[in-house]
Structure formats: C-alpha cells, structure tokens
Amino acid sequence: MTRVTKFAARDPGPSARVAGFVAHLRQNGLRLGVAEAEVAMAALTAVDAIRPDDSRRALRAVCTGCKEEAEQFDMLFDSYWMDAGRVKQKVIPAQSSSATDTVHSSRDARGEDAGASGDAVAPDDEGGSAESDGTGKLVATEHQNLSRRDLRDMVRPEEIAQAEAVARRLGAALRDKRSRRRIAARKGDRLHFRKTIRHSLATGGEPLRLLRRHRPDRARKIVALCDVSGSMSVYAQVFLAFLAGLMRGDPHADAYLFHTRLVRITEALRDKDAMRAVGRMSLMADGFGGGSKIGPSLMRFADTYAKRFVDGRSVVLIMSDGYDTEPAEQIAAALEKLRKRGCKVIWLNPLKGWADYAPVAGGMAAALPYLDLFAAANTLGDLAALESELARL
Amino acid sequence: MTWTDLKSALAAEGYVASDDLAVALQLALSLGRPLLLEGAAGVGKTEIARTLSAVQQTRLLRLQCYEGLDAAQAIYEWNYQRQLLSIRAAAEGGETGKSVEDRIFSREFLLERPLLAAITQDRPPVLLIDEIDRADEEFEAYLLEILSDFQVSIPELGTIKAVTRPIVILTSNGTRDLSDALRRRCLYTYVEYPDRQTELAILQARCPEVEARLAEQVVGFVQKLRAEELEKTPGVAEMLDFAAALMGLGIADITENPAVLQSTLTTLLKTQSDQAQITPEVASRIAGKAA
Question: Is this model's pTM higher than 0.90 or not?
Fold first, then answer.
C-alpha cells in the first residue's frame, strides 16, 4: 500500500485538508459545493477517520453521485491522501516533468493549491504541471485549430439558427398524448375533485361548477445518431448543423456521432456558444471521415446508452447512408434490440433522394424491416419537410 | 454504532452487505441524510431497506415509483367524497361558512400517503423510495422539498413539520439520469454484484440447509454465468431461486445430470434469447468449470 501523504508543518489542520480534497475533486470534474465539504467533515467524524479505508468509504458515499464518479473516486483519493505517483519528486527533480504525465498528480497539485492547505509539493512543480494539465480547456482550443477536419469550417452560425427552427418544428410534430398524469383543463375527461370541492364552498357545498382535468400532451424525446464516416462527409454539413440546432432547440434531445466508434456529444453541444459547441464536437469526433462500422456502433448504443436514455417515449433518428464495412446482420440485431425498448426508429438516408435509389446496400436492406420511417434527407429543407411524416407516426 | 456493528447486525437479519454499503448506511443513519443506491436489477437494493427496518425495529414505508406518480399518490390527498358528504350534511344541519371549511380541511379528512406518513411517525421509520428513476422529473422536485427540509406544505392546513426524521433510502436502476440537485442531497453507493465470497455468505445466510459443496457450485456457476454476454444478468434473488430449485429436485452435484441442470436454468435466464444462448453444452461447460 502506498504511504499516506505527509502534509507540511504549516498545514492549518484537518478541516483545511478536507476542503483541499473537495477542491481537488472539483478540479477533476465532480460537482461539489460548499455543503458537500461540510457533510464530508461530518462524515469523517462519524467514522473512524484514522483508518484510511473507512475514510475512503465514507468520503466516497458523500462525494460521488453516479457510477462513473464512484469509479473515478479511488484514484482521486489515492492521489490526494495516499501520495500516489509523486513519491520520488523531491528526491530527483529532473523527473518531475515525467511524473506529471499522469493526469492525477498534476491535477493534484492544483487542487491542493485551490484549497490553500500548504502541501508538501513545492510551488515550482506547479508551473510545470499546469502545462500538461489534462482538464482539456486549454489543450482543446489549440487542438481544434490544428485539426484538419474542423467542423466549424463546415457549419455556419446561420445554418445552426435555421436548423434550430427546423428542429423545434420537428419536435412539435412529435407530440405524444400518453402522459398518465392529469392536470386541470377546461375540457377534460375526468372531474378535478380538488378544484370542484374548493369552488363548491362558495356555493354552500353545492358543486355547481364541475371542473375537469385531462392528460396533457407530452413531447417525445429525440435521440439522434449521426454517421460521420468518409462516405457521409458530403452530407455532414447538413446533419451536423441539424444536430447542433436540435440540441439547442430541444432540451431533452440526445445526440451521438459514430464512424468506427460511438461518441456521445450531447454535453458538448449544450454549450451556450453555438460555434464553440461545434468546436467541442469536432474534437470529440476524432477520427472523422474514416471507415464506418454502423452495426457495431448501433449495437454499442443499444447495449449502453439506450438502456439509460431510450424508452417508449423516444424517437431514435439514425442519419446514415447504410454503407457498412461489417456484416449486415449486426445492424438488424442492433435495431431489433433497440425496437424492444419501445422506441420509434427513423432512418434518414441522404442517398434516398437520388432518382433511382434502391436500398441494395446490405446494411440498409437488413435495417428496413425495423424502421418506422425511411426517408431521404439531403438538405435542411428536406428535414423540415419531414414534419408531416413525423406527425403521422 | 460503528459500521462493523451495523454490518453484523444486518448479517444477523440475513443480509450480507459489502463494506462500502455498510459505511454508507451508517453515515446515512448518523448524518440523517438520504442514501441513494444504484445498481443492476437484482443486487439487493430494495432488500437492504427491509433489513434495515428490521434491524432498527421500526416500520418500513415503501413508495414504489412509476411513470405518472404525482403528489396526490405520494404525499397526501384530501378525501373528497367524504368532504362532499360532510358539506351536504352540514348544510342540512344549518352549519355554514367558515366552520364547515375549517372542519373539512382538517387532518381528519386528509389521506396520508407514504411521504407524509413517513414524517409523522413517532419512531423514525425507514422510508424506501423504490425505483425513483421511473418517476417523472416533476416528481423529483416534490421529493426535493421533503428530502431537504423534511416538511410538507399543504395550502389548506399549513406546513407539517417532521416529528422525526425518517431514514430515507432511494433506489434507482439507472433508466434515466437523475437530477444533480437530487444527487447532491443524497449519499451515494453503487451496489455491484457480490463477489464470490460475499455471494456464498448470502446463500448460506438465506438457505442454511444447502450443503457446502452444492453452495460452492451454485455460486461458482452463477458467477461464471454473469460473465457471459446475457441480456438480463441473473441477480442474487435468481441465484437463491436456483439453489432452492436444485435443492427441491434433490440434486447434490450440478455436473451429474445436464438435463436437470438445463431445466433449472429457467430460474436464472429470463429472456428467450438468453435461454437459446445457454445451450445444454454451454451450461455443462460452465458447470464443469464451476465445480
């Protein structure tokens, strides 16, 4: 086991260290507020804080909020409390740069700095570690400019605004009347007891006015998967603008890109600045314009994200030309699995707009039986025209 | 009570908790914070609440969430029919105005649902909010008021403050993302499938009559089966059913009769494609490895 971090003699005390630890976690992307730091202190007093494993468990219960964070927590804990990865730093200063190659030791230094706990790490280490910091922001901007396929060259702000309007209209077309909750309404199918009784008091207990309630319309959730492989690069402009617009127009939408891998871009596209969102997206779509593995990507989606984000109220929108380098059966199997979640599946194929197109590509032919709608879409206009079709689903 | 005490108390009631879970539970008890448990179906999330209520010797109030669950079903509702009758009776008796109103909006006419019931108990109960991810996002907002302040506002009656703070346990299967606000207020533990030793301990706690050798085999088999690519991975409850089925058939060694083994697999494999995937050959191969 690694030894416990030695804090400097001028260290102000345990509470500052815990605050430093919370700051360290915050630096690493865990969403923690001041209240959490308080609870963390309380938690440490409730367990036997001398024993590292107990403290680790207690802090994990307090500071993490989802499975991913819980998995990440152990490393973060080690890097702060257990002196991980920088045992030799002070002895051989020349190695400090290589030691900061590991993400955690570098973040560690910053985290402790934010907590002002006066750690054993010398300040001169921080200068070096800041450069190789892995939080992504600084590095990201540089990388985008170097990236050969920068999506921002392909998508213009006006298009995003247009696409946003289209996406709003599509979302409106996909209304679904299946909410089980009832709310007050002038014309409803059931009595609204609470309101009726309340109003009846005015008339001496005689319910003269019967108030009603009904089931409100509920919007469906759009989940968009966009193929960005080489064969699709011509159409990427339209679809990416659509994705960006969709995410801005509909707060519940969900977006993914795939080529040979599947990437979730929902968080990136939620960025307030539209062009920055596209920039973040292009960074995530590294390996853009290569081969396409539609089947495995869809299967991966069905196995992972779909279990969390796709339900009977979702519409899965797949934008791809159906040219797959993998066996076609995989697409069929993936779509079958998706369909079992109760969602609607729509496939938008840019090639379908061609005069004598037939779905002969193996993947496309295999997918057809599982689709609720198979339509063409080359331009934003085409997408807007889908509105009436979607309303009929 | 330290977490090791809690762990042994739970074990005495037949629940074998991991160290992580025991620490989280102990914190939930001592800090008075809700505990959010996530994990695959069948790892014993709901069971922990039941066992905890037995350990604490208190009531278990359970709120099963579903899509469309609303405040009327979860917190409170007025007994409208009774109110209506009471108003009519009052009118005939000549009673009018404010006195009627005060009477029909009193506690007597209030139907307590689990959340309100939980904060009005004399002895702190265990409140289990099961499968919170199934409820709508709107419902989470209601829940937040109760989880943060432990009070319920009823417009006609005023605010009802908690007599005692319930021990709140929320479970989620991760069918949708919970809001950050809710996660922030809760302690969190991800419940994994138990490892071999733990699962063996669970089996021995729940079915003490299973012979040690068979228990080893059953647990080994189920652990191996979880590594296969299945649509629905068998949970702990399924493992117990499996052991019970084998015992009922009087089997002492799962490798000896592949046909019987295959027929008992109905307790573990719950979809058609899983059953098709685990053919008798595969099953006996896994059984051979487990034994």
Answer: no
